[in-house]
Amino acid sequence: MSYDITLITLIKLFWSFFFFTLLSLTDVCDSPLVSNLPPLSFRSSSQLSSSHGPVFAKVNRRDGAGGWSPLTSDRYQWLEVDLGRRTRITAVATQGRYGSSDWLTAYLLMFSDTGHNWRQHRQEDSLGAFPGNSNADSVVQYKLEQPVIARYLRLIPLDWNPTGRIGLRLEIYGCRYTSDVANFDGSSSLVYRLSLRPSRTTIETISLKFKTLKNCGTLLHAEGQRDHSLTLVLDKGKLLLYHQQAVTSSSSGQLLVSLGSLLDDQHWHYIKLERMNTHLNLTVDKTTQQVHIPAELSHWDIHQGNVTFSCAEPVFVAVTFTDSQSFLQLPGSTSWSQGVTSVALQFRTWNKVGLLLTFDLPNQDGVVWLYINEARLRLLIRKAERNLVELSSGLNDGQWHSVELKFRSDHLSISVDKDEGATAHISIPLPLSTDSPLFFGGCPAEENSQQCRNPFKVFQGCMRLLAVDNQPIDLIKVQQRLLGNYSHLKIDMCGIIDRCSPSHCEHGGRCTQSWNTFHCNCSDSGYRGATCHSSTFKQSCEEYKHDGNTSGHYYIDVDGSGPIKPQLVYCNMTEDKAWMVIQHNNTELTRVTASPEGNQYSAYFDYASADEQLAAIINQSEHCEQELSYYCRKSRLLNTPDGAPFSWWVGGPSPGQVQMYWGGALPGSRQCACGLQDSCLDPYHYCNCDADHDQWTNDSGVISHKETLPVLSLVLGDVQRPGSEAAYRVGPLRCHGDKNFWNAAFFDKETSYLHFPTFNGELNADISFLFKTTSSSGVFLENLGIKDFIRIELTSTEVVFSFDVGNGPLEVRVQTSVPLNDNRWHSVRAERNVKEASLRVDELPVATKAAPADGHIHLQLNSQLFIGGTASRQKGFLGCIRSLQLNGVTLDLEERAKITPGVRPGCPGHCSSYGWLCQNQGRCVEKTSGFYCDCSPSAYTGAFCHKEVSAGFKSTTSITYMFKEPYDLSGNTSALPSSIYSDMTLRGENISLSFRTSQSPALLLYVSSFYREYLALLINKHDELEVRYKLHSSRDVEVLESPGTNLVDGQLHTVSIRRLADTVSVQVHGSISNWCFFFSPCLCVFLFPDSDEVDADLVGVASVGFTGCLSAVHFNSISPLKAALLHPDSAVIVTGPLVQSSCGSSSSANPYAAETTHSLSGIRAPLVNAIRSDSALIGGVIAVVIFITVSALVIMARFICSRKETYRNQEVKASQSEDGHEFPFSSQADSQSAPNENQKEYFI
């Protein structure tokens, strides 16, 4: 179906000019344009003499004095060339004055269509200066990156030969330019109907250029089918594209995109709309953005034709106040003595503060200041000593604002933005004098200037349409020094720059600006830095774990500074893995309900992470898995391999692919786990459910093939038959390992290196890696260009980040107080953007250096990227580099190292850097990629052996710990040396535990050996800690007390006991008490004593039991409570109720009860210590009596055997257990292995 496209232009624009590019330009556009121009085409600010005039400024000419030289060599001089018509300018060449020492070393270029309202040409959007000459004879040509279309060119000298003066010969290169233009006066419009025959081209384009002085109006309106339309609107100098349906006003449409800024500057701006199916590219000048449009606007019917009009432009001369020394001085009016005065102006600025106007009141010794403060207009009269007026706000928005002051003898009025703004009236006499000059923007720099005083900041911005007593000020006369005075002004141009369009703030950072710079507000973005480039979050749970974090919710930024947004995931830190858990909308077991609409049941899974986030996580993880289970009763799953499947699921990167295998089987197998294991209920089927039994069964398993993850949807087909019942469960996506974090290479030669493609980081470059070395210097990374380069290197005790983007080399250094060649891992992060360069080493403060305010910003490299060395093979790095990322992309060092001589993949030795994370006697164990904490020697558990193991006991609860005898007691032991017997006694202990109780007396711990010796730790009747030792049968029990501390207050208390031979140290809450025993440490071997030899008081305390909480029980290297709770199949027997608990708090056992999500300005920060456990938290009360027995290698085996039964009876009677431990034994005993390992059991 065909339809009309209507172009309606300029509803509200006062002056606007359009042209449609209808004529193709020739490919070659580099003809010289100056050599044949007539003398009247040249103008200059001044000339040294008639033979130094601008007409002689032609390249390679020797006429006159051999070129142009102004009367005075300063930055207010200029040379202007009129090309006669609008021309496409592609290059400019300069040359010094012939036969002299006069030449330029730097200059500015200005362009104009009218000879007024000049526009400065900038390189790379910020650099204004062009390089000049180094002598008077050579010709230096600069090719413009983007051709300029203009009639007039003006060159302004910036610097020149210091031993000469300004001297110039000039050439301009380009070609003729032709276009059709149309002029609109604000009430006219152009309707252009396209062909009724629909166009089916793949890409359809509308392009135009416009210029205007007004900041609002409709530029283009295109209509499609069913009342759909697009409208391109200029609003406050920005272009807005609206989609509308059945409306005619843009305000009620949907805003699709906003582009451009300051487009009301009376300069040509380029617009291009390019449609590709339902995607539309909108280009404004150099910036392009893509939007989606409805299908009703997906076809445009283009028909070209010629429209030719003439146009005339108004001339508004503006003036730019550039810096702190800028000011404009105008004389007072002769009519002021008549009592009626007015001053008017228009201004635009980005600054919140600045002086607009000041003048004296000599007759009253007063001063008037009109200024901006906090983006509001204020009027201060010193005579009144107060602010009289404060009007409007938001005056630093870069838009033109008008201000008018009117004075009468006793009345003052001030208005802002006329009808759209505000007006104030004040009754105050302000007699003015013709001797009172007006100062705009600032004051002269002379300290003795009494006519102008500025207590505020100077104005930086543009002014135009200045008028005094309704008489316009001729700023061209000011420029020619014929009127008033000025300094540091750019006249006949507005040099305002929108540094936020396009914005250099990344990842949603909000851009604000002043006249000289911009600032990025990164709050709520999850990123940091001058341009919000670097992520504040880690890239995986693995990284969080190796920063010492435990299980909890964390924000993960998979690609660092890349485009993928951070995502909140749950990190389950186990001892050897860091699992990343990503939930979806239904991870519970779900019963299938028959659908009345069809024979199939469908389920769709909506993940907490976006598609690109899921794909990136799966790609970078070493392993991913997802549970897929089906519970069935008379509900078949996959059918036979030859038949059509009843059910299937869709998995893999979105939109996914249909999968016809089940959890635990292989992709494409059309089997379940039982089929792979040959264990299905029906041998003729490959799934249990396909047996179609009238009883519940299931097919469950884990999908671990990453290319088919995650599970996106599920279709179950056999759920409608009578008697069919089914349920399914699709678990969360779980991944562990980080291929990027451990990707490493070892450089063992100074001449070795890895090379990669050129690093592309023109505007923003971030580089991060870890290294370890024993060498004091070496280059980590280097990439070169023709002139530009980037390098990071190690020199002695500092890391140096250096680069050059065309402004000269710049270095950022971080000095460390300790050597970096300690063979431990150190982190380096360097970033360079258009605002600054920064470098951070480990956790040291960040070092930064600001970029030049007006310099090159593009880093242009063209060689290979060298890692671990340089192209010259000098100063190579020796050691390991790991996890090297450039702009969020990890370089695969290991794969490249496999094929590179002198470089080896991988780098072991992580415990030297990360071993400190293993707490509470946990042992660091190396892995190929990383490490883990072995908690078997510790009384704690968790990823870093940091989680307490505690339980609640009642008085009837007991634990029996069993040891294996190191020797067969029935064997002949007469041949064993007698020196071994003394090693079977309790030579020393290292005991620690924590408890909480309100009971006294109470027995905390009891340890006995096979030989009449024991240790008891208890709370006595005075609520104090008491330690009882009996280490010799001939001596009384040694009682050690720790007075002064109430231990039955229901609070958590920690006790540590260390004994070596005759010295005991007891520590309670950090307070240490030491005792010495005065007896021989050599103990004899005796049989276990009878019950009447045990302290009766101790027996009484033991009979009461212990009610309370006990945790982290550790005896030498044995953790009996941990074994009882976490390893019930070990040598431990538990009787009575044993309840896991938390001695530290009385909270519930809910693992999420203590979890909180902290928020920082809207973004949830990582929960560093949110959950200190890897599974359920523990709460409750403990009571424990532990009896540790050592029995082996005794004298006369038959005698021991004859007494064994008596000994066991005594154990039960006294409710004591005997336990042996490796700590008191010699290494000789420990190294033996028994041919028959008979277990002994001791019950408490």
TrEMBL record:
Residues 1212-1222 have a biased composition (Basic and acidic residues). It is a single-pass type I membrane protein. Residues 532-584 form the Fibrinogen C-terminal domain. InterPro entries: ConA-like_dom_sf (IPR013320), EGF (IPR000742), FA58C (IPR000421), Fibrinogen-like_C (IPR036056), Fibrinogen_a/b/g_C_dom (IPR002181), Galactose-bd-like_sf (IPR008979), Laminin_G (IPR001791), Neurexin-related_CASP (IPR050372). Residues 496-533, 908-946 form the EGF-like domain. GO terms for cellular component: membrane. Keywords: Disulfide bond, EGF-like domain, Membrane, Repeat, Signal, Transmembrane, Transmembrane helix. Its main location: membrane. The chain crosses the membrane at residues 1176-1200. The keyword Endoplasmic reticulum does not apply. Residues 317-494, 743-907, 964-1143 form the Laminin G domain. It is found in: Membrane. Disulfide bonds join C880-C907. Residues 1225-1237 have a biased composition (Polar residues). Residues 1212-1244 are annotated as: Disordered. This is Contactin associated protein like 3. It comes from Sphaeramia orbicularis (orbiculate cardinalfish).
